[in-house]
Amino acid sequence: MIKNILNIVFILSAFSNLLFAQNELSRQRDFANNLFEEGLFFDAVTEYKRLQYFDKNKIYEYDSNYKIALSYKRGTKFDEAINYFSKAVLSSRTDEEKFETHVQIIRTNILRKTTDRAFQLLNELDKSASYTQKKEINYWRGWTYMFADKWDSAAFYFSLVDYDHELKNLANDVKNDKYSVTFAKVISYILPGPGQFYTGNYLSGLMSLGWTALWGYLTVDAIIDERVFDAFAIGDLLFLRFYRGNIQNAEKFAVEKNIEIANKTLRYLQNNYKGIKP
Amino acid sequence: MFIILLSSSPIYCQSDWQRWGAKEISYELPQIEKKNYSFNKAGFTSSVMSTFQNTYYFLISDLDGDNCPFHPTCSNFFAESVKETNIFQGALMFADRFTRDLNLFKKGHYPLYKTGKFYDPVTNYKLLSNEIKVIPSNQIVNQ
Amino acid sequence: MLTNKHKSNTALPNLNFIKSAIIIFILLTAITEGQTTDFFTPQNRLNFGNHLFSEKDYLRAIGEFKSYLQTTNNDTIKFKMAFALSEMKRFQEAGDNFKGLFFISSLSEEAKFEFLKTNFLDEDSKTFRDIINNSPFLPEKYLQNINQLKQISLFKEENTLPDSNEISNLFSENEKIELIKFYLRKKNPEYKSQGTAALLSAIIPGLGKIYAGEIGDGITSFLFTGVLSFLAYDNFKANHDFRAWLFTGLAAWFYGGNIYGSAAAAQNYNAGIKFDFQNDLNIYLNSKNYFFPEYEFLDK
User: Fold this and answer.
1) Cβ of B98 and C257 within 8 Å?
2) How many CA atoms lie within 13 A of C213 on its CB side?
3) What pLDDT sits at residue B65?
4) A232 touching chain C per CB within 8 A
5) What are the start-end ranges of the H helices in C122-214?
6) Which of C88, C220, C268 sits opposite B99 (nearest CB)?
7) b or e along B92-110 (b: 16 or more beta carbons within 10 Å of the residue's beta carbon)?
8) Does C276 fall in a domain?
9) Cα-Cα-Cα-Cα dihedral sign, residues A235, A238, A243, A247
């Protein structure tokens, strides 16, 4: 009788020891997850690494790699984040996990402003994507184009996600608000000054007009008086200099204004946009 | 490629040699550097010089475009060299800089500044050997 | 009743045997699993710390080692902690930690060497040599490495020269050849003289610059001062006095500038020689890892 009871006690304790080993790993995972939720990312990485070290059967390999990568991403350490996301891809168990990790790599590339790489990865991912996955890919394509300052392409891809997408309208607004750099340059070639008026730099335009008029008049005057050397000197060193300067300025002002327009929207996206951000 | 990625993890650990926390990077595009019209009130000569400099920028520099292939532009170079030495040495330094500007084959002799111009600071020409900073010509200077 | 007991007695041994076998098996696996279940025991923290150390994740490794050392005294781990600090370039702290291992430790020779190494890496060569010369803590086992570092520090500092005899004694054949080359480069740097450059440019504008290695600048200087002088002469001949004096003034200014610039060019040339020497020396020393000894126990 006593022997039977002792047997049962031994068996139960043996089983509970086995289960205990299993529970310790999941407890460690929960501990690390808590640190991640609290925002203590450096310590979260330490605990996920500890989990990985003791997880001999690699049960939590995907989860730990993924979470370590997310922690690095939140700490803006994008190279390390991409490294761990790539490890997570290798240890992913389902197609869903693989796709989501690839998307995270793309999002990290967007934040890192390496948009060429992001485009490359998006194209590769597109080849084997399902219909709903393609929608997500187009959403992130739109974001990549926004970060690459190509707002018309961004608007196009957002329209593929949803005909009346908020971001499509935003991108279209930026495209319409922007100044045409080519237009500014062309009218500057024709007449010094109006290129700067176009972007609202009236004083600079007037001064350009004044200087080029002055030196132009003196050059023509020298040519009429057959003072060749003088005409050459004034024409090249003064007139052409200010004429070229006017074209450069028109282009520069247009580009500056365009950057400010784009940045206004990018600031809105960073601080006020409620949708999914990279 | 993945093998290379995996084996390069020790290199990344260097960023973890100091504790770091959550941060946010800005979405904004980088802005073009603007000229600073700083006004130096630290004495009569500096005020006079600053006025001349700002007037020059306003009336001429701002309008005749980007003509200097060097980073401290020739006018900036002149102003800085006079500030750091004296008017006579500054004048000689400017003459030397102007002549170097005329050299059509200067590519490969100077390192590049982040804006793409040749980096040619005043400190290398003050005849003070301990202030000379050698930068290899294939490097890009960022500050 | 006797027969019932007898019957149950014969059936039981088989069942009992199977049960015991299962229990022993499960207990064995449970015991071995149980040893690794708590990840925060000192031994587990040590194992994890060693793993982090091997991955060069030094800050985290130090954290694990610290908590292990709270319960157990272990010289190798103290050494590893100090070594990690040194790798992270926290030289002061590393030095202090190494000092703690100077006495009553199996690694005292290694600790003494690493302490001197942190002084070397902390970039103050003169202090490093003073410490060696005055130190009662020289490790016998690593005297050759110390003397090698002493010669290297003489290479790296600006106005000192290493001892060529010592180089022959301390380094292997191939290393000796390379280091003697550096020695000769440092001994005879082939500088250009500022005075010569200025004088040459005073005689022929631009010649001093060519002497200082700036051929394009020299030719430009020559042509430009030539053109200005010609314009001055031409305008004097044509009696355009104002312009003539203007061009004379410009020519004089640029002539002075060219002399000044030649002296500056010679200076820059010399700075370039110094820079190339230091750069090549650093590349060579890094490829040899400064001839530092490697410790086997660090890889465990």
Assistant:
1) yes
2) 16
3) 79
4) no
5) 125-134, 143-156, 164-170, 173-187, 194-203, 207-211
6) C220
7) bbbbbbbbbbebeebeeeb
8) yes
9) positive
Distance from the B14 Cα atom to the nearest Cα atom in chain C, whole angstroms: 7
Q: Which residue of A has its CA nearest to C45?
A: A50
- Give per-residue pLDDT as tens, C3-25: 555 545 555 566 776 677 676 76
Write down which residue in C166, C188, C210 finishes a domain: C188
The predicted structure's pLDDT at residue B139:
83
Superfamily of segment(s) A22-91: Tetratricopeptide repeat domain (1.25.40.10)
Task: Please tell me whether residues C218 and C236 are part of one structural domain.
Answer: yes
Structure confidence at residue B3 (pLDDT): 45
Mutate to test the interface with B, among C81, C93, C254 (most CBs of B within 10 A): C254
Decide if C146 contacts C138 (C-beta within 8 A): yes
Contact residues of B toward A, CB < 8 A = 2, 5-6, 8-9, 12, 15-16, 19-29, 31-32, 59, 62-67
Chain A residue closest to C61 (CA)? A46
Whether the per-residue pLDDT at C246 is higher than 70: the answer is yes
Whether A115 and chain B come into contact, CB under 8 Å, resolves to no
What amino acid is encoded at C15 in this protein? L
C268 vs B19, B94, B124: nearest CB:
B124
Domain ranges of chain B: 42-141
Average pLDDT (A79-86) is: 96
Task: Say what the pLDDT of residue C13 is.
Answer: 60
Q: Is C257 on the interface with B (CB under 8 A)?
A: yes
Domain limits for position C137:
73-188
| pLDDT recorded at residue A21 | 59
ipTM: 0.83
User: What is the interface size between A and B, counted as CB pairs within 8 Å?
Assistant: 89
Residue in chain B lying closest to C263 (CA) = B127
Same domain, C117 and C154: yes
Q: Work out the percent of chain B whose per-residue pLDDT is above 90.
A: 24
The size of chain B, in residues, is: 143
**Quick one: average pLDDT of B109-124?**
88
Counted domains in chain C: 2
Average pLDDT over residues A12-41: 82
| Residue C109 exposure: Cα atoms within 13 Å on the Cβ side | 11
**Cα(A46)–Cα(A64) distance, integer angstroms:** 11
Closest residue in B to C89 (Cα) is B17
Check whether residue C77 and residue C182 sit in a common domain. yes
pLDDT at C165 over 90: no
Domain segments of chain A: what residues?
22-91, 113-177, 181-268
Q: Per residue in C25-66, pLDDT tens?
A: 666 655 555 444 789 999 999 999 999 999 999 999 999 999
Task: Show residues of chain A in contact with C33, CB under 8 Å.
Answer: 17-18, 20-21
